[in-house]
Amino acid sequence: MTIKENSIQLRKVSTADVDAIWSILQQAIEKRKVEGSTQWQDGYPNPTVINRDIENGWSYVCMDEQDNIIAYVALIFDIEPAYEAIQGKWLTDGPYAVIHRLAVSQERKIKGLATEIMMAAENICLQQGVPSIKVDTNFDNTAMLRILEKLGYTYCGEVFFRAAARKAYEKILNV
User: Fold this and answer.
1) For the N-acetyltransferase domain, which residue ranges apply (predicted)?
2) CA pair distance 71, 62, nearest whole angstrom
3) Residue 132: helix, strand or coil by DSSP?
4) Integer Cα distance of 87 and 42 in angstroms
5) Rounded to the nearest 10 degrees, what angle do helices 18-34 and 47-55 cross at?
């Protein structure tokens, strides 16, 4: 199945969604492992992280036509401490949103879903007047690197999480 441009919406998460979200994240963790990546192979993310995302109001899910959760993303409207020590330079110094923990269901593959989720997150930021999005990913996460390039994110340098370097990107939105 292929989705139509701008046809998805993200909704806020409730604690009732944790099991479905954790299932999707476990699928993503396994996918990264099979691909030979070290990303997400150290016990992160986990249910505690999901619950913290929910408590902070950062959690969003994407639903299919039958109201099944098919993707998860944390959209954070707060400073990411690791981003303060970038080895490189961000495009902007002002307010920004952060995208973390984007994962899509491996049970029901939908071509372009992760890209559409990124675009939906951009729309949420625009609605809230947030002028840029910052995101990072592992050096070997080729799928996410392609999405960031396709959507016009600019490589800004490296940030570090749990002692590992990540490629850092920013996109200035047309607020």
Assistant:
1) 8-175
2) 5
3) strand
4) 23
5) 130
Query: What are the distances in angstroms from CA 69 to CA 23, 53, 72, 84?
Result: 10, 16, 8, 33
Q: Please give the Cα distance from 125 to 75 (Å, whole number).
A: 9
pLDDT digits (tens, 9 = 90+) for 73-105: 999 999 999 999 999 999 999 999 999 999 999
Global confidence as pTM = 0.91
- Give the pLDDT of residue 61: 96
Q: pLDDT tens digits for 133-154?
A: 999 999 999 999 999 999 999 9
Q: How far apart are CA 33 and CA 40, in angstroms?
A: 8
**How far apart, in Å, are the Cα atoms of 89 and each of 17, 20, 134, 139, 168?**
37, 37, 12, 18, 9
Task: State the average pLDDT for the chain.
Answer: 92
For residues 124 and 94, the answer to whether their CB atoms sit within 8 Å is: no
Q: Are 50 and 21 spatial neighbours (Cβ–Cβ below 8 Å)?
A: yes
Cα of first residue to Cα of last residue in the chain, in angstroms, is 32
Cis peptide before 45 (omega within 30 of 0): yes
Name the CATH superfamily, with its identifier, for domain 10-172: Gcn5-related N-acetyltransferase (GNAT) (3.40.630.30)
Task: Domain ranges for the chain, please list them.
Answer: 10-172
